[in-house]
Structures are given as structure tokens and as C-alpha cells.
Amino acid sequence: MQDEGLSPNASTFTCVLKACAIIGVAEKVLELHARIESEGLLEKDLIVGTTLVDTYGKLDMMKKAQEVFDRLPVYDTITWNVLIMGYARHGHAVDALYYFEKMQQHGFYPGDVAFIASLKACAAIMEIHRAQELHAEIVKVGFDQKGNLINNALIDLYAKCDLIVEAQTVFDNILIHDVVSFGALIAAYAHLGYDGEAMLCFNQMLLESVSPNEMIYTSILKVCSNLGVINRAFYLHSQIVKEGLSEELNISRALMDMYSSFGLLQELQEVFDRLLHYDVFSFNLLIAGFCKNGYDELALSNFEKMKAKGLSPNSNTIVCILRACANIGASDKGQQIHEQVIRCHSLETDLAVGTSLVDMYARCGLLEKAQEVFDALPVHDLVSWNALIGGYCEQKHSEEAMSCFDHMKNEGFLPDTVTFLSALKACSDMQSICQGMQIHIEIEKIGSLDDDPMIGTALVDMYVTCGHLIEAQHVFDGLPNKDLISWNTLIAQYAKSGHDEEALMCFEQMQLTSFSGNVFTFSSVLKSCARIGTISIGLDIHRKAVKGGLVGMEIMVGNALIDMYSNLGMLERAQTLFDSIEIQDIISWNALMGGYSQLGNERIVFELLDKMMAKGMHPDIVTLSIVLKACSHTGLLEMGQTLCETITKSFDIKLNIEHYICMVDLFGRTGHLDKVACLIREMPVSSNSSLWLAVLDACQKCGQTNLGILAFHHVASLNRRDAAAYISFGNML
């Protein structure tokens, strides 16, 4: 146009400025601005001036927009609107509200654009009181009845301010809902965790024949994840494909995140493979999905693919991949990633990455490296302290864990649930009741016991492990919210420590609550029944396990029942249960063999051993003990020696104290004390009173005084109060 000698007029400038705003060419706008100034159009034509303010506002050049606005000789409502909208659009909320007030002070009444911009500004800075004043003005002038634009802005405002009731009220007052109003309300419910309400709102939208858009699908897919509605998720995915939205990046990411949460990794991979373009965020979703669902090798494999495509990992990638390394103990790979982190300055100073390195090294057992990385962190936070303390605790370095716990508090950090759980575990491992009680006092001061049942459960565990059952029961009784885990902990610890009657009483108390028990509960109480020989209670617990659907489905319960009936001498029931288990494991076989051995049916023990090995099941240390006892009871010396040698060599089993005791008993029963003497010389550990007592008993049976005297001195030096040793020694002399 200019090449033909034609000069642009006001309309031309207006059109070109609008085009510049759309394509974002700031340099051209500055050039046009200068031309407008030179031709005096800024003072002459309000439309040109308003368009220039609007253009600068859309380009986030608010300083220039304000300069132009201030130079205008006159304003109209549109001029004020574009200035306010410019400020609101780019997050200058305070300025937007300021000029909204100024507009009214200058006698201009706001239109819907100014109200929408001001509502947007209120949402940005959570200015709830001002927003409610604006809402009242809107209702007063009837703007809420003029269409959905302002109502949608109100829904969005209340949603962002977490005022979901007010958002729903505005929505309900709209005569005809559109996709924007539905989208704002669904997003609000989803954001605040009201997933059921979000799904109901989505269903209402479909009933009103409003088609979802990209934003709504993104929100509702997350809702499906949270609600665990897999079939609905599949249906939505099919609709997305049908509507041609499956290639939209945000929807693809939402689908990947959803399938990851369901553990549907094949579907996750398929969505990823259909992406038109791969970026770091998409790879992160894929890697995190595999890592979260226990496929750490696949996570590492995709990490390599990501790098092969020339994509540089960000901190989220590194954090996830270090977790994968920790999960599978891949310390070599973790160290390679550490070297990569060191080469990248932005990652080296990232606290989340540093904390993940501490966690990885600690969980891989490289505690010195974990401490080294921790010490090199520019700052520490509670998460990094928890990683270090948890690492020491997991590797059974309980003293170091408690030292770090004290150091952390000295630096002014207040322990959280994770910290307390690690510290209490360390106290349990050390059986340090004093430190445990001190932590209990700290927990009560902070009030964590009332807020988190996990801490109460850990306290119960600590007290029982340390042998303080009264305190454990007291803590348990005081828990405001007992869950199944806390019940299981108390029952299991009672059973583990041999307080079987207390375990059974606790189980009966639990039955009076809403908890009926799970596989762990029944496994614990059945062990207690087996030990104290309570047949009637055992039968009752068996009935309850059947009623709860745990027999036949859970092998742990089946094994515990076999063990209980075996110990109670009810081998027909034990055998029936064993035969009913679809796939027996080594514990099943051991429980049944142990029962037959206990009743002196050694022939069946050997038959079961043959059947077990014929099925490809490998004996373990318990199997070996049972077999050696059977050989001892029947005096099968050669068979016992052969089985011991064959099983240990073929299945890489190292003899423990119980095996040595069985062999001593076998040699003693068959009169081969010379072999006992040889065995003693070969044993890696000889400072065990039970072992020497077995030697003493063997000497008593064979009348071997010299070796018997030696055995007695060993028992007496290890346990002076062992009455059985004095009786055997007296009988031998």
C-alpha cells in the first residue's frame, strides 16, 4: 500500500495493530506507534489510541500501554476495559483492581469486560472480600442475567478461591450451561479433591448434550484415576479417540498419568508411542509410571531411550530414575547418574536431586557416600534429613540414625511422621527403651499421636519389641483412631514375643470392632493357637478365616492353618488343607513335614521330602532341620549324614546352630561320640549353650564322661542358671 504512495488512515492503523497483537510482533507495533505519533492520530482518534493500548496489553508491554493511556485526551469505557484487561491478563492483579476503581471514580460504569477482568484479578490474589463486593454489584445491575461470560468468570473465581459452594450456587443459577461453565466447575471439584462431585457434574454435562473440550477431558481423566473407575476411563479414552482429540498433548499426558495410576503399563506405553512429538515431560510420565509400578528396569531402559533422542533430563527425571536405582540396588547406575548430575550445575545445586542421591546411596547400603552427598548439600531440609536417617535405619545402623535424629533437632528442624517412624524403628532395633520413651514424650508434646495412627502403631511396636507390654497396651488403648495396621501390630508383636494369650485376647477384642482381620491378623493368631494348644479357639479362628474368604485365597493363612493343626496333632485336617492349596510353597511343605515328624511319622516325612523335590521345590534351612530330626529319632545315621551333605551342597545351605544340634543328637543316639568330637572341631561357632547342652545329653546317653565334663563347663560358663545342664551332668556321673 505504501509502495503505491498511499498513506494509511486511522482504520488502517487499527487493523494492522490488531494483526500485530495476534502474531506477536512487538517491533512492528513500536514502529507503528511512532508513525501514529508523527501523524498526531493519538490525540485525534480515540479508536486508534484504544487499539494501541489493547495491543500493548496483549503483548504484555503494560508500561507502554500505560504511557499511551495516560496521553489520551479522552477515554471511553472500551479504553478503560482494555487497560484493565491487559493488567489482569498478565497477572498484574493489583493494578487491574486499581484502575477498575479509577474507572468508576471518573464516572464510567464498568461493562462485562471490566467486571470479568476484575474477577480474574481477584482470583489471582485471592481477594475474596473484594470479589464478593463485585459479585453483589454484578447482581445489582443484572449482569448475571445477561449471559454466561460473567457467570463463568464468577465460577472460575470461586473455584480458584476454594469456595466450591459459592461456585455451585452461581452454576445452578445459570439458565443454559455451556462448556466453559461446566469446565470451570468440574476443574474446581477435581482440584479440591471432590472427585465424586466432579464426575456427577460431568454426567450432568453429557445429559445436557454439552460436548467436553480438552480441558474437561484432562480434568475428568484425573478424576477417573482417583476414583479407580477403570471401565469409565476406557470409555472416555474411546470417546477422545472418536472426537479426534487423542493427539492433543495435554490429553495424551492425562491419559498416560491415568493409566500409570491404574498400573496399566501396556496402555501407558501405547499412548506414549502414539505421541507426535516426544518431550522431557512425556518421558518423565512414562518413566515414573514404570518406576511407580515396580518395573524399575523398564524405567532405566526408557531413561536411556530418552537420552538417545537428545533430550536432557530435568530434576524430575533424575529424582525418578534415582528412585528406580534404589529400588533394585543398582548402585553402579546410580553413581553414573551422580556423575552426570555433577557435570550439570543446575542439577548439582537442586535440593530434590541431592536428597534423592542421599536416598539412593543409603538404600543401596553405601552409607558413607550418602553421608558425603548429604554433607555437600548447600542447604538441608526435613526431606533430606529424613532420607539420611531412614537410610541408616534401613541398613540397621541404628546408632547413626539416632545421632542424625539428634543433630537434626539441634539444627532447629521439627520431626514429622517420617522422622519419628525411622527413629522409633531404630529404638526397636537397638531395644533402647530409654530413647524410645524420650521420643514418645516428644511426640505427645507435638500432638502427632492424635493426628497420625502410623506413629501410634510404631510406638506400640517399639514398646513390645523392647519387652514393655503394659506401655504398649496403654499406647494402643489411647489411640483415637485405631486402624487394622495398629491392631495387627499389637497382635503380631504379642505373638512374636510369645505372649500368645494376650495375642488371642487382643484378636477377640478386635472382632468386636468394625475390623474382622486380614491375612496378617489370622497368620499371627493361628501361630499363637498352635503354641498353646487351644483346639476350640483354633477351630473358631479357622471358621472366621473361611467366612472372611481368606482360606484358599491366601497361602499365608493356609500355611498357618496347616502349621496349627500339625502342632495340635490333627494331621488329617492338616493334610486336607495342604491338599486343598492350589500351589504349595516351601512353608506349606515344611509345616506338614514338621507335623508328621512331631508325631513320630518319620516315614511320611521322607515320602513328603521326595514328593516335594520331585515337584521342583528346593529344601531350605527349616526342611533340613525337620529331616535331620526325623533321622535322629529313627537312628538313621548314614541317611542323615547323606541328606545333610546333599542338601547343603546342592541348595547352597549353610548349617546353623539348630542343624548342628540335630547332628549331635543323631550321633549321640547312634553311639558315635567320636563324630560329635569331630563336629565340634569343625563348627564355625561354638559359644552356644543349647549346642553344648545337646553335647552333654549325648555324652550322658553314651556314658562319655570326658567330653561330657567339657560340655558341662561350656554350658555353665555360658548360662550358669541352666538347670537342665546340672541334671544331665549329675545323671552322667
TrEMBL record:
InterPro entries: PPR_At4g14850-like_plant, PPR_rpt, TPR-like_helical_dom_sf
Lineage top rank: taxon: Eukaryota
Keywords attached to this entry: Repeat
Pfam families: PPR, PPR_2, PPR_3
This protein's record includes keyword Transport: no
PPR repeat locations: 76-110, 178-212, 279-313, 381-415, 483-517, 585-619
GO BP terms, alphabetized: RNA modification; system development
UniProt GO MF annotations: RNA binding
Record NCBIfam families: PPR (TIGR00756)
PANTHER family named in the record: PENTATRICOPEPTIDE REPEAT-CONTAINING PROTEIN (PTHR47926)
Name of this chain's protein: Pentatricopeptide repeat-containing protein
